[in-house]
């Protein structure tokens, strides 16, 4: 693995997930691997879990980390070629990526989808820019279309709590006041291909994800029916992919409620956080013993640590 | 000591203050105590002294620290239960506290009083939230009603400079252009109960502190009279507690001046900083050898180190 | 060297530059020098290269670093004496500098020129304030009139790439949409006095630098003529010094183009970055093998490391 941009950068997913479980058992077992190495963390969007768990992961590998918030501490970057840079952007990704590559050993980047320019978002302009013009391994801390660290943590959590060999997993859309990106849902969908699960997606009409990713996966517009016999309900809001970035009106209430959870096979509730209580999901569900959201967040550390470990091992 | 929220979390104040003096002598004597431990520092308000001295304290114990500014790097948290979270807050304290507890060993939190909602401020909603929903020791970096780290540093400074067994200490209100919280004054008042001092408070009418805290303490509305024979003048502005958060008009000038200091027993001048020169106190007083403000700030490091040391020792 | 504010704080420039080359060969050779020492980095302006390369430098010396952004994390400081502080500034430099000196071993400060008050900028109010009222070595991360770390990196880069004993070096003004400070140009001009170079400056009328600095240096208002036979073109925009901080209209196009570079002796192109492509310089020039901008940025680390090393050695 040279870069960690998407889940398919991982060569052997089974073995990789097993490695995460092992790191969770012995987080300090590889403390010399990162000695005198530095992780550069560049944020173009806010972050809580991702930043802290990744810094913790670096630390447990004996690695230094430096955090740079581009909004607030730095300046706007230009990602397009050929532009006459008289606007807001003070520096081009070509220089920025090449320069910071000289100060770090691994470069971690968070840059959300704009939800305004579908083509640019799909092209992953920002993280690709660091990959193309940088000279060190790049690690995805959530990009326009993918959040693979989250999917790794989700897979490990699912493995920790699954009771049957082939659990029924439902990814359900849920309401949210603001238009949100598709990254978490996309990576979760991708991850489900690697696990032995009975997987389906439930979302209102108008909220289909990128059809390239969901090909072959059962999709329901009836949330209630989809929940029947589910072992895991993974919940996430996303905006429309077709009418890109919009929020088409939804006929019925898609909030995850305790009543809806009762129709499942006593399913676990999963969400990547942050989550809006009583909007996305009823508080009662989050506060029930079936909620795995805190466990998922904990596994973020070991997912990030496994990625960093692999990138460091590959580099040496 | 499981948490450090208020001064009365400290079991034996005499011994604790003695411990701070000792750490000042040998700040690196416990460098292995914090090995592979992490201090998470969450800021809901700006900080200079508190952040830097506490990071320094962690470092001297061999502990990592991570700083997170919620305004700027993160998002707004919701602290009330039962809310339908369609507003500005993207995450609830229940999730935030439980999640970050998994990344850190000690959690330090700064969250000032709103000065708008007296009940919420007195309930210490923010720091209590981290205590209630987190799973690790919480350390107060100034909350709505208390700044116990400052009071510890103040006590140690007072001990370093006192010339008589029972010095006369006056806490004097002073003017300020903005309405300020009561945290520093509250904790100083509480601390005075632990020390052998002749303590009184001077403030203009309308500026009484929380009467629960000042019970039994002599209070003067005449600054000049209060200063007579004082050995230490501790100065701080605060807004009204009764007409909560307001700034009732003040008849005379309460600025601490060199002339007023002359009426004392060559008293030392103390202030927690930041201080507005020639508003709160005359520049001449700050620049005089009697000013202890820089020494107070220095002792913040050792106060924080003693608290961290105790929390780490209790946790193991 | 007690402080590092200007290039002339360096006692023996030849030896100092040689030291930078050596640190680049063995960056980890002095890892014990910084043990239990802390670099405090205070930013009054945004920073990318300077912050990261200086943190890296500290790290390579085994030194801790703490970053504080005054816009965002702290509050406004007052630098003038005698002011009645009822305005925006919550703390005076006298207190701030004395306080933070107690938490750090070396203090690094970035504070750009205001370009509004020439006298104050020339007086270096901010960095001088930390020097005057602090009690530890102060390191310039770009001040109102100087960016000596950049000049050190530039000199080392020039030495690495020079092909003749006395190369022809031209400092050329170039266009920019915003009014910029003189710090980089000033320090580059100063540095040229230390090197064996044939140095000249080219700028449009109205853009003369501080005449005290450029005395004796050939100055051309004809860019094309100046470029003839040049071995290095160092490019930078700056605003007028005479009509301080303004941008007088420029008759012809001063952008550095591939065509103009062809008139040189296959010159190397240098710039401190960030650079606006196709405004300051044609993209083609930046992407050519003659561009040294990435190499310059890399040498920032070793320049900062040499400065820190000297300050630490002097302090012990």
Concise structural overview:
Chain A is α/β, with parallel strands linked by helices.
Describe this structure in words.
3 copies of one chain form a homotrimer. In chain A, 37% of the residues lie in helices and 14% in strands. Chain A is of the alpha/beta class. Chain A folds into 2 domains: 7-146 and 300-315, Aspartate/ornithine carbamoyltransferase (Rossmann fold, 3-Layer(aba) Sandwich), CATH 3.40.50.1370; 150-296, 3-Layer(aba) Sandwich (Rossmann fold), CATH 3.40.50. In chain A, the strands form 3 sheets. A 5-stranded parallel beta sheet of chain A has the order 9-8-7-10-11. A 4-stranded parallel beta sheet of chain A has the order 2-1-5-6, with helices on both faces. In chain A, helix 2 packs across helix 13 (293-315), helix 4 (93-100) packs across helix 6 (125-133) and helix 7 (148-161) crosses helix 13. The longest helix of chain A has 23 residues, at 293-315. Chain A is globular, with a radius of gyration of 20 Å. The two termini of chain A are 12 Å apart. The mean pLDDT of chain A is 97. Chains A and B meet through helix 2 and helix 13 of A and strand 2, strand 4 and helix 4 of B.
């Amino acid at each position: 693995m040279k870069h960690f941009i998407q889940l398919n950068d991982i060569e052997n997913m089974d073995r990789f997930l097993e490695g995460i479980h092992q790191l969770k058992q012995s987080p300090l077992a590889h403390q010399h691997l990162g000695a005198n190495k530095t992780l550069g963390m560049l944020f173009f969007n806010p972050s809580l879990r991702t930043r802290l768990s990744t810094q913790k992961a670096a630390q447990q590998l004996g690695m230094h980390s430096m955090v740079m918030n581009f909004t607030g501490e730095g300046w706007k970057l230009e990602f397009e070629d050929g532009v006459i840079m008289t606007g807001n952007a003070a520096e081009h990704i070509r220089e920025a990526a090449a320069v910071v590559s000289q100060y770090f050993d691994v470069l971690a980047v968070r840059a959300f989808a704009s939800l305004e320019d579908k083509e640019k978002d799909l092209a992953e302009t920002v993280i690709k820019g660091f990959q193309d013009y940088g000279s060190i391994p790049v690690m995805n801390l959530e990009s326009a279309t993918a959040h693979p660290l989250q999917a790794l943590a989700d897979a490990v959590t699912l493995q920790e709590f699954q009771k049957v060999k082939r659990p029924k997993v439902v990814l359900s859309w849920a309401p949210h006041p603001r238009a949100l990106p598709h990254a978490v849902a996309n990576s979760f969908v991708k991850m489900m291909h690697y696990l032995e699960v009975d997987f389906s997606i439930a979302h209102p009409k108008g909220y289909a994800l990128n059809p390239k990713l969901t090909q072959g996966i059962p999709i329901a517009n009836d949330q209630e029916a989809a929940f029947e016999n589910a072992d895991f309900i993974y919940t996430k809001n996303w905006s429309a992919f077709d009418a890109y970035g919009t929020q088409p009106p939804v006929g019925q209430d898609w909030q995850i409620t305790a009543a809806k959870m009762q129709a499942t096979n006593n399913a676990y509730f999963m969400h990547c956080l942050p989550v809006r209580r009583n909007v996305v999901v009823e508080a009662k569900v989050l506060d029930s013993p079936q909620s795995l959201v805190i466990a998922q967040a904990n596994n973020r550390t070991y997912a990030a640590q496994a990625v960093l470990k692999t990138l460091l091992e590959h580099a040496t």
